[in-house]
Amino acid sequence: MKIVSTQEHYELLIDEGNDPVQDPPQLQSYMNRWDGPTFFNKLNPNNCMVLDIGIGTGRIAKTVLLTGCQFLVGIDISPKTLDRARTNLSSYPNLELVNTDVNNFIRPNTFDLAYSVLTFLHIEDKEKALSNIYKSLKNNGSFVLSVSEDNEWFECGDRKVKLYPIGLEEYIRLFQSIGFQIESIQETESKYATIIKGKK
Predict the structure, then answer these.
(1) In 10 A of CB 44, how many CB atoms?
(2) Which end of the chain is more exposed for a tag (fewer CB within 10 A), N or C?
């Protein structure tokens, strides 16, 4: 089995025709194990400046934009994935897509809300990522993170990708050490993931 980087994996998914925005209902239901109504109820993005960390092809961003957020910045490490997001979200003028890693991204005091689903499992230096998010939020800004229990490797067909799993307790410790006030911790409907909401 071939080991590939996170960026290579997601670009191969695009080459293979994988686009969660275009998923049929059955696959959408599968993805809702990590977000779904519980996740979206924590966001409250209306009239907010929003940061989507690991925007992918725009599956979650599309819903956030539909709710009337003021402006959304989506970051992702994969140029091919961002190209697909650009197509999927082309009807929204209040959008900026940035090809970068969250560990290299800071826009001080810019966002009312940041969120991330299925991205932090790929981030080794979670403390730096959370610190950059914290600095990018306005006072009283919120960060909503969906976390799950993961193995060290993710296998997909003939390839596998290295993951960097940590437990819920370690996420909570990192949130608090950086300065976030934990507002709520809640399991999703499927009990597959846990939602952490912190406020600056």
Answers:
(1) 14
(2) N
pTM score > 0.85 for this model? yes
Q: 2.40.290.10, 3.40.50.300, 3.20.20.370, 3.40.50.150: which CATH number matches 2-199? A: 3.40.50.150
CA–CA separation, 98 vs 139, rounded Å?
23
- How far is 20 from 38, CA to CA, in rounded Å? 19
**Neighbour order of strands in the sheet with 95-99:** 95-99, 71-76, 49-53, 111-117, 137-147, 194-199, 181-187
CA 200 to chain centre: 18
What is the strand order of the sheet 159-162 is part of?
2-4, 159-162, 153-156
**Residue whose structure tokens are 């990192």:** 174
b/e per residue, 154-164, with b = 16+ CB within 10 A? eeeeeebbebe
Please check whether residue 120 is in contact with residue 145, taking contact to mean a CB–CB distance below 8 angstroms: yes
How confident is the model over 46-81, as pLDDT tens digits?
999 999 999 999 999 999 999 999 999 999 999 999
